[in-house]
């Protein structure tokens, strides 16, 4: 078939060539060589609008990812790095040092395409912001929320208007009338970056705390009020006078009333229909997106910007959690990962830090920074204190509400596009926004450090910290803590932490993970009649956060889980792959002398890093098919291991089973054996038995055996990989007084 049809195609082409005329065709192409013609085609392809746009997207996405990683590494929200990446791609850095490359990559005629894509991304992003608002949280703390959020708007708004009087003559009179200029400056001072605040609260494990819930509720209320005020400012700026703006304001009120009184009940009924559906069909998703676009178009037509319509479309969506989660999953990733970086880059292309080039302009910049911090941080802190919060929580609320970040950048771009802000004022307010957001994380750490001493004085009971990856490991760690500490656990404060890697996790998804991760632990705690303080946190720095929690809580005992290959060299472990696999494994080990990180486990180097920085006792549970502790082997190697008998007498001793004491092999210290026989076995023969050495002990083959040893002995034992691989589940203890430097 292929042969026949290829022959027919060839015959048809040959027949068609008879219609060619000698005067058709480019003489330039005839004179040009084949390679020169190929280069010309490549050159034309590189300069067409689609290729330029795709290259811009590639450069933007790579740069944004790099800066996001760097800012997360220094403890800042990733979105801060993305905003800075946009500035770097603009005339402030790339255009200043590499003007030719910048002009080739971002030619002026190509910016319209970039702008349109970024605007679509902003519409989707504002829709997600509206979806994330939880009105139930606002209702629960309505009085406190209203006071704090309104203080966080009125005070900075007033100070912003006063500052506008100071700078209007020099930096605003040429742009617009004083009224829209002053009101826009006031709005810029009043906005709180709700998404940045929510992720900071999530990263610092404050989501379920009273101060975290109060901050989120206040920021949500602040955002709704601030965006409504921004809509009024836009109406004033576009109408030109207050009287003509009243028509736009009236239409805005009608629009908001229609959205809440008509569309919200209608969408609620639809949401109830799809609440129990396993999959939301494409027709319904298409309807939601159509509604989003119609809402955005309506607000753009009446003169208050399409972003406000997208925000309101998200706000009036059904409150059904499953519905909102599905919609956020469909929209959030593409808007945050793909579209928003384009917006950052476009913003950076008209941000030139070099415009702030005089002492007077730097003075104006400093003025706005001071006014912003005094208005937002000061106003919210005092308001929180006035509604009954203590000074620590009040300072935390003020610090969180002072973050402006991305939401400020959105508002500034609106002002710049409308001609309300000059390029110089745009840069001044952008620097203010970046600085106030950047200071949030260090300020929170400072507040915690200041009040840590007071909390340390109030520390009376022992604290036990369980840190686990897989949910089932949490249940087992609680069992190990109960086995080791016995009745003392009933009098201790018990804290369980579960960390999820990745700070960009959606708060709704994080809440679902937090609920599911502690289910096995809760069941075990209920059986043991224990109360556990659950702490869930998302982070990009697992070890640092674990250490920080242990230090902040002043814990006495830390229990962590490890994988089956803990302290085991995979290159010498018998198994599939033979000598070739072992050789490859040894070669990989030479390149990187650390084992691979397996999901849900903490391997040797990570645990050693933890023990280097905490001064509490550490218990490491290595699960090797553990079911229950029917047999306990207490491994002793030298006199330093005698501390284990403190647990054996007072905690493990509460258990009904016999504790079997053993040494590694027959060459054990005879004096140490005699001491153990005299001090422990003979004094309590019903509890302690001196058993056969580990190398000849049959109990190590039993899955219900728990082998208890010190960390130093475990390090020694791990050198014999063949023996170490045969051991049952391990409970390895590093006591408080044995820091690794002392070992």
Automatic annotation (TrEMBL):
Q: Which domain of life is it from?
A: Bacteria
An example GO CC term for this entry is: membrane
What is the protein name for this chain?
Answer: Cation/H(+) antiporter
InterPro entries attached to this UniProt entry: Cation/H_exchanger_TM, CPA2_transporter, Na+/solute_symporter_sf
A Pfam family of the record is Na_H_Exchanger
Q: Which residues cross the membrane?
A: 46-67, 79-98, 110-133, 145-169, 181-201, 213-236, 242-267, 279-298, 304-323, 335-355, 361-383
Q: Which organism is it from?
A: Butyricimonas faecalis
Q: How does it sit in the membrane?
A: Multi-pass membrane protein
Q: Which UniProt keywords apply?
A: Ion transport, Membrane, Transmembrane, Transmembrane helix, Transport
GO biological process terms, alphabetically, are: proton transmembrane transport
- State the Gene Ontology terms under molecular function: antiporter activity
Subcellular location, principal: membrane
Q: Locate the Cation/H+ exchanger transmembrane domain: which residues?
A: 60-445
Which locations, inside or outside the cell, does it occupy? Membrane
């Amino acid at each position: 078939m292929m042969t026949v049809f290829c022959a027919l195609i060839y015959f048809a082409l040959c027949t068609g060539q008879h219609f060619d005329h000698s005067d058709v065709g480019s003489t330039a192409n005839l004179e040009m060589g084949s390679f020169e013609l190929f280069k010309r085609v490549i050159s034309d392809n590189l300069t067409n609008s689609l290729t330029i746009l795709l290259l811009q997207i590639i450069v933007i996405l790579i740069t944004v990812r790099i800066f996001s990683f760097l800012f997360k590494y220094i403890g800042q929200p990733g979105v801060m790095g993305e905003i800075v990446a946009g500035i770097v791609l603009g005339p402030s850095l790339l255009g200043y040092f590499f003007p030719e490359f910048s002009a080739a990559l971002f030619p002026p005629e190509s910016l319209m395409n970039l702008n349109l894509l970024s605007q679509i991304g902003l519409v989707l992003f504002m829709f997600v912001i509206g979806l994330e608002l939880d009105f139930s949280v606002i209702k629960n703390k309505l009085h406190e929320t209203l006071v704090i959020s309104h203080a966080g708007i009125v005070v900075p708004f007033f100070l912003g208007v006063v500052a506008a009087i100071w700078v209007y003559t020099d930096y605003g009179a040429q742009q617009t009338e004083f009224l829209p200029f002053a009101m826009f400056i006031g709005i810029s001072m009043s906005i709180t970056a709700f998404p940045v605040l929510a992720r900071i609260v999530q990263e610092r494990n404050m989501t379920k705390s009273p101060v975290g819930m109060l901050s989120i509720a206040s920021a949500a209320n602040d955002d709704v009020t601030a965006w409504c005020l921004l809509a009024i400012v836009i109406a004033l700026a576009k109408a030109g006078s207050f009287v003509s703006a009243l028509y736009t304001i009236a239409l805005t009120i009608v629009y908001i009333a229609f959205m809440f009184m008509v569309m919200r009940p209608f969408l609620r009924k639809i949401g109830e229909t799809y609440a129990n559906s396993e999959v939301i069909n494409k027709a319904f998703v298409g309807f939601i997106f159509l509604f989003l676009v119609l809402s955005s178009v309506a607000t753009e037509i009446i003169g208050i910007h399409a972003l406000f319509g997208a925000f309101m479309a998200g706000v009036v969506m059904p409150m059904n959690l499953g519905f909102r989660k599905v919609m956020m999953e469909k929209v959030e990733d593409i808007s945050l990962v793909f579209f928003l970086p384009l917006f950052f880059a476009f913003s950076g292309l008209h941000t030139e830090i070099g415009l702030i080039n005089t002492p007077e302009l730097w003075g104006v910049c400093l003025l706005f920074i001071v006014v912003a911090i005094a208005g937002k941080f000061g106003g919210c802190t005092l308001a929180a204190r006035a509604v009954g919060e203590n000074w620590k929580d009040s300072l935390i609320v003020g610090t969180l509400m002072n973050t402006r970040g991305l939401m400020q950048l959105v508002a500034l771009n609106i002002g710049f596009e409308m001609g309300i802000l000059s390029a110089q004022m745009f840069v001044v307010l952008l620097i203010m926004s970046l600085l106030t957001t950047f200071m949030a994380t260090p300020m929170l750490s400072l507040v915690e450090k200041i009040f840590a001493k007071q909390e340390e004085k109030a520390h009376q009971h022992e604290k036990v910290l369980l840190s686990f990856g897989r949910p089932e490991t949490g249940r087992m760690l609680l069992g190990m803590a109960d086995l080791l500490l016995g009745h003392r656990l009933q009098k201790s404060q018990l804290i369980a932490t579960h960390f999820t890697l990745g700070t960009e996790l959606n708060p709704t998804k994080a809440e679902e993970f937090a609920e599911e991760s502690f289910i096995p632990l809760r069941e075990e705690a209920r059986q043991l009649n224990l109360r556990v303080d659950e702490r869930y946190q998302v982070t990009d720095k697992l070890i640092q956060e674990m250490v920080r929690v242990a230090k902040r809580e002043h814990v006495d005992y830390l229990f962590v889980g490890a994988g089956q290959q803990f302290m085991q060299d995979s290159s010498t472990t018998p198994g599939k792959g033979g000598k070739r696999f072992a050789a490859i494994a040894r070669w990989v080990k030479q390149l990187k002398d650390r084992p691979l990180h397996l999901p849900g486990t903490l391997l040797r180097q990570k645990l050693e890093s933890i023990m280097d920085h905490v001064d509490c006792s550490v218990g490491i549970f290595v699960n090797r098919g553990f079911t229950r502790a029917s047999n306990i082997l207490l491994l002793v190697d030298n006199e330093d291991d005698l501390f284990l008998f403190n647990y054996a007498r007072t905690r493990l001793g509460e258990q009904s089973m016999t504790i079997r004491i053993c040494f590694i092999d027959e060459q054990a210290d005879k004096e140490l054996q005699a001491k153990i026989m005299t001090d422990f076995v003979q004094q309590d023969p019903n509890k302690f038995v001196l058993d056969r050495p580990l190398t000849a002990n049959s109990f190590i083959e039993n899955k219900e055996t728990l082998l208890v040893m010190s960390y130093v002995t475990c390090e020694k034992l791990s050198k014999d990989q063949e023996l170490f691989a045969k051991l049952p589940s391990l409970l390895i203890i590093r006591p408080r007084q044995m820091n690794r430097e002392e070992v």
